[in-house]
Amino acid sequence: MSIKIPYDTMRETVEKALLQAGLSKEKAEICAKIHTESSADGVESHGLNRVPRFVEYVLKGLIDPEGDPELVGGKGAVENYDGHLGIGITNALFCADRAMELAKEHGIGCVALKNTTHWMRGGTYAWRMAEAGYMGMSWINTESCMPLWGSDEPGVGNNPFCIAVPREDGPIVLDMAMSQYAYGKLGVYRLAGKKLPYPGGFDKDGSLTDDPGAIEESRRILPAGYWKGSSMAIALDLAAALMANGKSGLNMDEEGRGSCTGCCQIFIAYDPYLFGAKEEIQEMLNRRVEAADNSHPEKEGGKVACPGERTMETRKHSMENGVTVDEQIWEQILAIASGNLDTKDIASK
């Protein structure tokens, strides 16, 4: 069952839970803010819902709360960092900010990060770059969790990809996994007792289904665009590992630690006015978005929107009316924050 929790109450409670897990005050504040913002934006799968698993990984030693990015090498507008298995959120925020610093100097900045952990909501860093006035691009490689097209077993990660355009009237931000639905989203629908809006994978008998639980059981999520999503996932995996000189999805499979442990992430920031005037570029962006938004809807009363536009509406609603959360997840967070839940309890839910 879903309930509404005031934004500040959620953020403060998550911070307490993360302090219980051993994070420093500074990192607990940062991570609590990002997790709460993600849920407020409607991405609860990688917001509040991820907190129990994150705490579990910290307590098991798979994430080092004291690990920070270390510069390995750099050349011009490109830098490479080792994340030392630190907190995925704080590592990624550092690298997104560093990419923007490089872009301010060179027009474009690229930061490749290896040996890091799950960054939670990938769109966080694209939004951050767009809201700072830069075009942003980022992606991650993961262990295998999706079958390659033509296979019936996981053979590639769903390797989320993000791109953000800094439109002053509202950024346009794409945040997508290479699967039709990420596993976190399957969990959201399952917890709510709902079917998926469209088929999202195959059940154990190989039949296409909209049952999130059946897909979680079979581990056969559907690549977005079928063979195209499958191919894009492999390309993103190889590109991230190459650019960061780090692990591919296969390396992560062989290590078997799970949840993106040891993954690579790429952050690219670009000065949108490098070759054009701000006023002209913003006018072009606005006209293009307006034309897209005015597309005739297939159903009466429907509305077409560019990626990111509905996010702003969801955020406003959450701030005014409270953030929607699953009651079971919220009870877990409260238990962690009070120190009454151990690793075994977390892993069993």
UniProtKB/TrEMBL annotation:
Among InterPro entries, the record links this protein to: Mal/L-sulf/L-lact_DH-like_ah, Mal/L-sulf/L-lact_DH-like_NADP, Mal/L-sulfo/L-lacto_DH-like_sf, Malate/L-lactate_DH-like
**SUPFAM superfamilies in the record:** L-sulfolactate dehydrogenase-like (SSF89733)
A GO term, aspect molecular function: 3-dehydro-L-gulonate 2-dehydrogenase activity
The protein's matches in Pfam families, at most eight in alphabetical order, are given as: Ldh_2
* EC annotation from Swiss-Prot or TrEMBL: 1.1.1.130
Class of this enzyme: oxidoreductase
The organism's superkingdom is given as Bacteria
Arranged from A to Z, the UniProt key words for this protein are: Oxidoreductase
Q: Does the keyword Kinase apply?
A: no
Concerning NCBIfam families, the annotation shows: PRK13260.1
Q: What is this protein called?
A: 3-dehydro-L-gulonate 2-dehydrogenase
Gene that encodes the chain: yiaK
